[in-house]
Design brief:
This protein is mainly alpha-helical. Helices cover about 70% and strands about 5% of the residues. It is built from 19 helices and three strands. It has a three-stranded antiparallel beta sheet. Belongs to the SecY/SEC61-alpha family.
Length: about 450
């Protein structure tokens, strides 16, 4: 505890790091404040009570889980009909599209290799594509809240303007697009002037915003009539901590491939001989794809739910609208395993790694440089990706496994694994690593300055 307090003091004493953290916190406050501003045409007070009625409606339980999942990524802005209802997710969708297109479009492939200028152009393309995604998602969102959650025919008091009119749709679409672009701008500013990855931090903040309410609701359910009591709350908290620790292990687990670098030294007579150099490692992550397979799979999982409109009497298809059903989670787990291999294959170029090793005089012991090294790395990567993908899929469907058997409420169950927990763990680890880097650089600079100050003048 004493070392932790000392670390906090070191962070505060380092001016640059302190300013970055305060700047990040300021941007987060702006984002959270904006998420409580409702669309001008909607009565915010009425929307809150109506959505609560909808979520507790016995005939709408299948859609409630899906609504809770969507709302969790925006910190509740989705369910509050906020100007930030779309959140940062359109930017994430645009980034995924650009990344996938980079595999097939030569122009994008060239930009990926052009260094800083290429990245800037790709960022600009992603921003324009974000606007296009928003223009598609905003009308769908407005259509959903006006036809399902707060239909005008039953709840006219929830609207200041009739939702079928041009004066409702045009300003609302413009405001939703602007809100998503504002969230994107906040994320980029955090990345540039703050600490950590701004986009990921905004997603994590949105997820964490719903945690206190979900936990309080779970406590109320367990300690109320028919609940298991306070001892069950303690068991849930201990289990949740264990799941977090396992998620951390999955995020940092690596397979180290030993690399031996050789150097050339001139022997007598002008010849060359090989001498051993430094031994290093290639760290291949067990979960190299991170949370991206879950995000890809999550994006596709909304498609089966839309198919229920073709046949609303089909109970099998209806299960895909419920994030806790066995149909939903079985398909979800299969897609995660598939996307884990797919994303790992496109993000870890084993051929390029093998070529770089050969060019720099590096080799894997007992493996020939070149194609044999590439095949060896590909074989190792395939072997460690399979268990990583399986564990990732288990984490993703864990909320459905604990819902009902251990956890009694939907909101708190979503924090037991799934996209929410893995995003939080990944963002926290990345942010802590950046803070540690600043601290190490600070101590290193101070050590060099003290040595220089003790060096006598010649």
């Amino acid at each position: 505890m004493k070392e932790f307090i000392q670390t906090l003091k070191n962070i505060w004493n380092l001016k640059e790091l302190r300013e970055k953290i305060l700047y990040t916190l300021g941007m987060i406050l702006v984002y959270r404040f904006a998420s409580y501003i409702s669309l001008p045409a909607i009565n915010m007070a009425q929307v809150g009570s109506l959505l609560e009625q909808y979520q507790h409606n016995g005939g709408s339980k299948q859609g409630a889980g899906l609504l809770g999942l969507l709302s969790s990524f925006t910190g509740g802005a989705f369910s509050r009909a906020s100007i930030m209802a779309l959140g940062i997710m359109p930017y994430i969708s645009a980034s995924i599209i650009v990344q996938l297109m980079g595999m097939a479009v030569p122009y994008l492939q060239k930009l990926q290799k052009d260094g800083e200028s290429g990245r800037n152009t790709l960022n600009q393309i992603t921003r324009w594509l974000t606007i296009a995604v928003c223009l598609v998602q905003a009308p769908f969102y407005l259509g959903t809240i006006t036809s399902v959650f707060i239909p005008y025919a039953q709840f006219q008091s929830a609207y200041y303007v009739e939702p079928t009119s041009f004066m409702f749709w045009f300003p609302s679409v413009v405001i939703l697009v602007a809100g998503s672009l504002f969230a994107m701008w906040l994320g980029e500013k955090i990345t540039d002037k703050g600490i950590g990855n701004g986009i990921s931090i905004l997603i994590m903040v949105g997820i964490l915003a719903g945690f206190p309410g979900a936990f309080i609701q779970e406590v109320s359910t367990q300690t109320g009539k028919g609940g298991a009591g306070a001892i069950m709350i303690l068991i849930e908290v201990l289990l949740w901590i264990l799941v977090i620790l396992l998620a951390v292990v999955l995020s940092v687990a690596v397979r180290k491939i030993p690399i031996q670098y050789v150097s050339r030294a001139h022997a007598r007579g002008g010849g060359n001989r090989m001498s051993q150099g430094a031994r290093q490692w290639i760290p291949l992550k067990v979960n190299a794809a991170g949370v991206m397979p879950i995000i890809f799979a999550q994006a596709l999982m909304f498609v089966p739910g839309l198919l229920t409109k073709l046949d609303e009497t089909n109970t099998f298809l209806a299960g895909f609208k419920n994030v806790f059903s066995w149909q939903y989670n079985m398909l979800f787990a299969i897609l995660i395993v598939i996307f884990s291999f797919f994303y790992t294959a496109i993000t870890i170029p084993v051929n390029q790694i093998a070529d770089d090793l050969k060019r720099n005089g590096g080799l894997i012991p007992k493996v020939r440089p070149g194609k044999e090294t590439s095949d060896y790395l590909d074989d190792i990567l395939s072997k460690i990706t399979l268990p990583g993908a399986i564990f990732l899929s288990i984490f993703a469907i864990l909320p459905a496994l604990v819902r009902g058997s251990i956890v009694q409420t939907d909101g708190f169950a979503l924090f037991f694994g799934g996209t929410s927990l893995l995003i939080m763990v990944g963002v926290v680890l990345d942010t802590v690593q950046q803070i540690n880097t600043y601290l190490l650089n600070h101590h290193y600079d101070g050590l060099m300055q003290s040595k220089l100050s003790r060096t006598p003048n010649k």
